[in-house]
Amino acid sequence: MTTNVILLGPPGAGKGTQAKTLAERTLLTHVASGDLFRAALREGTELGMLAKSYMDRGELVPDEVVIRMILERIKAPDCELGVIFDGFPRTREQAVALGASMAAHNSKIDGVLYLSVPNDVLLRRIAGRQTCKTCGATFNIYYFPSHKPGICDACGGKLYQRSDDSMETAQHRLDVYFAQTMPLIEHYQRQAILYEIDGQREITWVNEAMLRALSQFMVTSAQPKE
Ligand code: AP5
Questions:
Q1: pLDDT of 145-172, one tens digit each?
Q2: Which end of the chain, N or C, is more open, meaning fewer C-beta atoms within 10 Å of its C-beta?
């Protein structure tokens, strides 16, 4: 038995932040499409170069590329107990492809946790985000800066700002989200598996709310650890 959950929400809503903690507190594996593209870029692969050309403009990478990458990723043994999808699906085509693949493997999406956050907060979070080059931890110069400016508290690595986090690109990413990803809210509402969570609250509050929602549909083997 597996449990599969999607974290849905606009850029800056806190999907990555929450997915990391949820994965630590459950047996589910965090699969983030954006992280996979950034890893491919660091490795200098063709996929990485292709993705960068879209990411830098705040546009979505073509569906067929993303779908192939994610469906391949979730075949790995570490996804056997279930997956926390972060940043995927982002279009109706991606949602349909994921649903079909799950059904073909006698599995399904059990729940969709939708993080709602107002636009002005999103833009501030994106503008303030700093990510560690070494371990991927995220900080925020407005909300919780690292103790030493530019240095990761967790591993001492160097912090950087993502190239798609400039104000202009961030605004465009939000526009793309409203046009192409927001319709998924209704898509999953119709399946009665959507749980809306107030993503504007503090990180720990949001995390507890997500764990409560998860415990409503998670199978016992992957229940949150105390
Ligand atoms: P991706 O990497 O998926 O970025 P995104 O969805 O735009 O989301 P972000 O990573 O910006 O935000 P988040 O919700 O994870 O927030 P975070 O936790 O970091 O995608 C990047 C690009 O890749 C796309 O534009 C596209 O080109 C391509 N791509 C990826 N997936 C694709 C797909 N499926 N199809 C096509 N193309 C795809 O938090 C943000 C900041 O806020 C951090 O500083 C954090 O510390 C802070 N924060 C978080 N929560 C709180 C809180 N509760 N209170 C205060 N601060 C908080």
A1: 999 999 999 999 999 999 899 999 999 9
A2: C
- Is 30 a member of any domain? yes
DSSP 59: P
Closest to 159 (Cα-Cα) out of 175, 147, 174, 176: 147
Pocket of ligand 1 (CB under 6 A): 9, 11-17, 33-34, 37, 54-55, 58-61, 66, 87-88, 90, 94, 125-126, 128-129, 138, 140, 143, 164, 173, 202-203, 206
CA-based max dimension of the chain: 49
Q: How far is CA 15 from CA 21, 118, 200, 206, in A?
A: 10, 15, 12, 10
From 20, 92, 108, 162, the catalytic residue: 162
Three-state DSSP state, 219:
coil
**What per-residue confidence (pLDDT) applies to 130?**
95
CATH number for position 81: 3.40.50.300
Q: What is the pLDDT of residue 161?
A: 94
The range of the structural domain enclosing residue 213 comes to 3-116+167-222
Determine the residue of 6, 88, 140, 206 to mutate for testing ligand 1's pocket, defined as the one with the most ligand atoms within 8 A of the Cβ atom: 140
